[in-house]
Design a protein that fits this description.
By secondary structure, this protein is mainly alpha-helical. It is about 50% helix and about 10% strand. The protein has a two-stranded antiparallel ribbon with strand order 1-2. The protein is globular and about 65 Å long.
Length: about 240
């Protein structure tokens, strides 16, 4: 990347951080305003992709799924309504916060000349990393006792029975390509989404060349953002 490209990258990252800080629905105590999640993600999407027709298709895809209201898991982080979109927003935020120190360091490495990326690449990788969780959870009910000792029906989330055998990250890539087919030309974005789970989402044969993916700084960035969103901010 040229010095001008680097300056543009960091400028746009800082602009996205400003957009997040101005309209963030997440409070410092961990509470959040669910109604504020979608408008902020849409605002950031529009900033990254302007009038791109694929961006409109992407927003339409999210609207036709349960992306905005689904949980992020059944037992771990974000195991509640709106958990998926909340987790996604926090991963976007973490990616942007970590991007400048990570990339400043990366640009001093021998691998730097092999990559060319934008703030939009970082944003879309973070936005789409868990698309595979859309339409994946259903609500069931179990019998539990309330505080008075009476039996009541308690709702809980459970994974649906359909199998998704290509792996967590790869399924998300396929879903992103439905609305944004041009991403197929951005291998560094596809690698980041595909490998954001690290070793936990690899077959035995895939693990042999896994270290090659870590040469891609967006892979490292997205893994860091995903883990810190879940473990530091519990979402």
């Amino acid at each position: 990347m040229t010095d001008e490209q680097k300056r543009t990258l960091f400028t746009e990252i800082n602009q996205l951080i400003s957009i997040f800080n101005e309209d963030s629905p997440i409070q410092s105590d961990g509470t959040f305003n669910a109604e504020g999640i979608k408008p902020l993600i849409i605002k950031m999407t529009d900033f990254c992709f302007k009038d791109d027709s694929e961006a409109q298709a992407l927003k339409a895809w999210m609207d036709k799924t349960d992306f905005w209201t689904a949980p992020a898991s059944t037992r771990f982080h974000g195991n509640f309504k709106f958990g998926l979109s909340l987790h996604t927003l926090m991963v976007i935020k973490q990616c942007l916060e970590f991007a400048q120190p990570v990339f400043t360091n990366f640009f001093d490495s021998p691998e730097a000349s092999k990559y060319d990326f934008t703030a939009a690449d970082i944003f879309i990788a973070a936005l789409a990393h868990d698309f595979c969780k859309t339409n994946f959870y259903g609500i069931e009910y179990r019998n539990t006792k309330d505080i008075t000792g009476n039996w009541v029906k308690q709702p809980f989330y459970k994974s649906k029975g359909d199998n998704r055998n290509l792996g967590h990250g790869n399924e998300s890539v396929l879903m992103l390509l439905e609305s944004m087919p041009s991403i197929i030309k951005k291998r560094h974005v596809i690698e980041a989404i595909s490998r954001h789970m690290g070793f936990s989402d690899l077959s035995e044969s895939e693990s042999y060349n896994y270290s090659n993916f870590l040469k891609n700084p967006i892979v490292v960035l997205l893994q860091l953002a995903d883990e810190t969103a879940a473990q530091w901010f519990n979402c």
